[in-house]
Amino acid sequence: MRVLVLAGLLAAFVARRMLILTTVDGSSMAPALRSGDRVLVRRTRRPRRGQVALLRYPPLPSGAPAGEQLLLKRVVAVAGDRLPPGWADPDVHGLGGAVVPGGCAVVLGDNRPASWDSRHYGFVPRERMIGVVARHVSRE
């Protein structure tokens, strides 16, 4: 009995450290993720192309602290990938033709007109990555 209790406590501790349950807020990832959807995120700082990543909100252009707001975006390029010219509109940072540097990724919302993503804030450093969506938990 004691072993089962310890195993349960260990599993809960690992799950808490490795998994995050979050709610989607906004339409930038529609139709894959809609506002109100709940998703389970597995912690990792090494997302693969095609995965939906949870990341810390990039700093505002003014340099003011952005707080702990988080974003869900699809990873479209990882370190070593070359972005084709004209890869996005608008390409505010002029990333077209660039190679994604080591330790960085490029992310886009699935619903481009409603998304604030790498087109606007450039490469996302690994330090800003929290994890990747492991599964949908519920849909409102």
TrEMBL record:
Gene3D superfamilies membership: Umud Fragment, subunit A (2.10.109.10)
What Pfam families does this protein's entry cite? Answer: Peptidase_S26
**Domain of life of the native organism:** Bacteria
Which cell locations does it reside in?
Cell membrane
The record's listing under SUPFAM superfamilies reads:
LexA/Signal peptidase
Keyword Transmembrane helix set for record: no
UniProt domain Peptidase S26: residue ranges: 3-82, 97-134
Assigned keywords, A-Z: Hydrolase, Protease
Keyword Hydrolase applies: yes
InterPro entries reported for this sequence? LexA/Signal_pep-like_sf, Pept_S26A_signal_pept_1, Pept_S26A_signal_pept_1_Ser-AS, Peptidase_S26
- GO BP annotations, alphabetical order: signal peptide processing
A molecular function (GO) held by this record is: serine-type endopeptidase activity
- Provide GO CC annotations from the record: plasma membrane
Membrane topology type:
Single-pass type II membrane protein
Q: Catalytic center at which residues?
A: 28, 73
Similarity comment text for this entry: Belongs to the peptidase S26 family.
Which PANTHER family does this UniProt record tie to the protein?
CHLOROPLAST PROCESSING PEPTIDASE, SIGNAL PEPTIDASE I
Provide the protein name.
S26 family signal peptidase
Q: What organism does the record attribute this protein to?
A: Amycolatopsis mongoliensis
